[in-house]
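Weekly puzzle thread! Below is a chain. First person to post its structure in token form gets bragging rights.
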Amino acid sequence: MKRLMFLTALILAMISVNATYGVLHYWSGQTSDDWSVLTNWTEQTAITPVPPAAAVSLPGSADEAVIDFQQVVATYDAPFNPVIDSADNLTIDRLTVRKFGTISMTGGTLNMVGASGRWRIGWRANDNCYMEVTGGTINTAYTLEIAENGTGGLAKGELKFSNATAVIGRGITLGDVGTATAGTGSTAIFTMNSGSFTTGNLGSYGMTVFENGRMNMNGGMLTLKDGLVVNADTLDTTIHGVINLAGGTIQGAVSLTLNGTGAANIDITGGKLILTGDLRGAIQTAVDNGRITGNGILGGYEVGMPDPAGDLRWYYDGTNTSLWAVPEPATLTLFGLGGLFLIRRKR
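Winning reply:
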């Protein structure tokens, strides 16, 4: 009787785990790069057996899709990289790209609908993975996490994003809090070249860039529904997150928190940072402390105020506070030469 009760409890526990996390679908990539081909997937419904067995279904709304090449290569031949294209309209619980996994999305729709429907690129120690999005629409019910390993171990995750739309239910996390060693070894990179990215669809959430995080903003629109935070390492504050704003617009943040010493948290060479509300005081403090620079140069001033050294300019219009950098002297020289050339041609 006791044995029967034990087996019943074990079965119920397994059902409970699977009901919470669904079935793990591992990409094997043995047939093609097509997400929708069944023979490209394996399934793992419990911790064992490893490796996963052949899939009996594609990952669905209750399942986690895992792109884990270390898991796959140990069992199968070298896999194709998965591609999500215009023919795909996918709904899964969550997506995890880890262990040297690489995935690309050129079109279509990817929905992550789980109560913790994370979009994760790099998750635990020793991850080294990459995702490139060049089209399509992505929706998550929870967060985007890049190299958020939770263990302080070394991890690398990179996302490149262009010509697409992403709506994140909560917020964006780049990197993870750790030690000075973890900060120098782990890397979370988010490069946005064009398109639209929005956080806080299900509430007020923004973006946190930890000490091993880096965002390269070259174009497009990133809209944050809460604060923008760039953190420093707890042991060595010269190791901190970085945002390079070279083009496009980061808008909507209602607060600005920049931590660290040494090089700036944010360097603006193009584009605009538009903050909701009157954040002139926060900007002035950040500029004075060297936490924001324009073209790598310290200093700047509010439009209409005396003109000290520095390339940063900011302005409050009664609703938003906008911050940008004036063109570098070399750029202005090129504009001037271009104007002289045009005048000479007209003559």
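Puzzle host: Confirmed. Bonus trivia for everyone else. The radius of gyration is 23 Å.
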